Amino acid sequence: MALPDPRWGADDIVAHLRSIGTEQNRAGMARFGIKTESALGIGNSDLRPLARKLKKNHERSLLLWDTGIREARLLAAFTGEPQKVDIALCRRWAADFDSWEIVDTVVDLFIETPFWRDLIEEFAADEREFVRRTAFAMLAWSAVHLKKEPEATFLAYLPMIESHAGDPRNFVRKAVNWALRQIGKRSMALHAPALALAEKLAASSDKTARWIGKDAVKELTDAKQLERLAARKV
Predict the structure, then answer these.
(1) Cα 64 from Cα 3, distance rounded (Å)
(2) Which residues, at least 6 apart from 134, have a Cβ–Cβ distance to it below 8 Å?
(3) What is the pTM of this model?
(4) CA distance 39 to 216
């Protein structure tokens, strides 16, 4: 088969993916909790360079997503065009989420949309495990990557973190914890309120909230983290 080409359609890409996937890779993915039922066995270290060669293409990304194949869906996220993504599409894709890996990849696309804050609020209120995870994964990801976003945006999300800290589902609690830690590490201005919430949760009678709080306190009081924050210009 020819080398990847930006002119390839979804069918060409899927054929290429099928030709390079391996059963050995599929077995390895399972050990990391990656769902392999729809996987062809291709690692992200191969998919990301492939995505760069294929370039962005919104219409093609829609077709790739609809195949239901793990690797095709990851490429859909890597090659989607956020300026062409509408909120209805985000809702439709979120309804298909069935693994932490897909969630944590697609949120990179979602936070580039102009309505990402609306999605966080909506998805946090959703009872579906992977949809709720999406809200907090978006929050964590945006705290790291949206450098120009005002600190007040993230401060305002701390009550939402507290209100969902009791959700015991594994993929939710880990994302809530992730969001709290990333907000606290964003700046000195956010560190103190995030740490205060972490300490409050650490003292909770709720087992899940207590785990989230203790883990966040450990990271937010780490000497190296504090040095990094102190050295950063706010």
Answers:
(1) 18
(2) 94, 97, 103, 106, 107, 110, 119, 123
(3) 0.94
(4) 33
Residue 90 amino acid letter: C
DSSP label at residue 90:
H
Residues whose CB is less than 8 angstroms from the CB of residue 145 and which lie 6 or more positions away in sequence, other chains included:
108, 111
Q: What are the structure tokens assigned to 161, written together? A: 């973190």
Of the two residues 57 and 31, the one the predictor is more confident about is 57
117/138 Cα distance (integer angstroms): 9
> How buried is residue 84: exposed, middle or buried, by Cβ count under 10 Å (0-12/13-18/19+)?
middle
Q: Supply the pLDDT for residue 150.
A: 97
Backbone angles phi, psi at 33, to 5 degrees: 75, 20
* Three-class SS state of 131: helix
- Let me know if 147 is exposed, middle or buried by CB neighbors in 10 A (0-12, 13-18, 19+): exposed
Each residue of 37-75: pLDDT tens digit? 999 999 999 999 999 999 999 999 999 999 999 999 999
Residue-level length of the chain: 234
Residues 37 and 39: their CA atoms lie apart, in Å, by: 6
Q: Tell me what pLDDT residue 176 has.
A: 98
Checking if the pLDDT of 2 tops 60, the result is yes
Does 15 have pLDDT greater than 80?
Answer: yes
d(CA 192, CA 122): 27
For residue 90, what are its two tokens? 């985000």
